[in-house]
Amino acid sequence: MHTFLSENVRKTILYDAPQQVCKLVKEMTNNRFKINLNRTGETEEILRKGEIQCGYSGIYYNTPQYRSLFFGCAIPFGLSPQEQTAWLYYKKNPDDELTFIQSIYKEKLGLNVIPFPAGATGGQMGGWFKAKINSLSDLKDKNKIVRIPGLGADVFKRLGMTTHDELSPPISVDEAIKRLKDGRFFAVEWTSPYDDIQLGLNQAANFYYYPGWWEPSTTFDVQVNINEWNKLPPYYQEIFKLACHETYTIILNEYEQKNSFALKEIRRQGVELLRFNDDVLEAAEKETKKLLELLSQTKYLRRFMTNGVVLKTEFERGQS
């Protein structure tokens, strides 16, 4: 198993999730089924070439041609944690072998991959900013770089901001925090209070915003090569599913519990806890709707799989 979670984020709750899956599988099979974890930071190869047996990741870290899969991870102004769980485990027919999201990977996109939810952050915060956001105009500055992944980055760009995914080569979260501290970045978001303190974000900026409207319930999963999956005996497959589901529950519960204590600590330190004003939220929701309408058009979905770069350009132009 490869994972995008490198040593840079060792102190976060999510860091332990892939190891938890491996540990549970080993324990439930009395050491007969062992999965080796490789913290390479790379998992997209499993989608493109299938050379990796399985990978732990958030699908929104992948390139534009897989953007239609982001619905299995995080959608701006999307589902609550409870709704997201129901969606991820939904089957059109109870007797179906695959959940609906699994069928999209295989039947709609032709990927030789089956995903299993194995971790969730719940509702996230809006990130750490170097200055207050008093109006929408404060966001319309190409020199104000924001670290943000997924469709949230597309919405920010439509609002006039520059996001870290436009930089080349990609940068680590450690580097993003350094740039926030020295002023090269205007804002950085990671997940929520507990993880953010562990990474030192509370020492890099003084304004902590909420809500994280771009990630109301972010899910991470184990993406398994179907050829490797089919090699497992059925009872090992069931054990693997249970290990992923248990990890999903454990990680979500940890965030819910630890974030409340961490938020109190952040307030005690004198950090300003601020809500995005209505103008910003309404503008962001409007651009999100335009973006999702564009994504829902069949002609654009076909182009996702063939030319993600062209489609990304159309997003930046604001065409819908």
Automatic annotation (TrEMBL):
Pfam families found in the cross-reference section: DctP (PF03480)
Keyword Transmembrane helix attached: no
Source species, domain of life: Bacteria
Keyword terms: Signal
Alphabetized Gene3D superfamilies for the sequence: Bacterial extracellular solute-binding protein, family 7, Periplasmic binding protein-like II
Residues annotated as transmembrane: none
Signal found in the keyword field: yes
GO biological process annotation, one example: transmembrane transport
Protein's name in the database: Extracellular solute-binding protein
Organism name: Microseira wollei NIES-4236
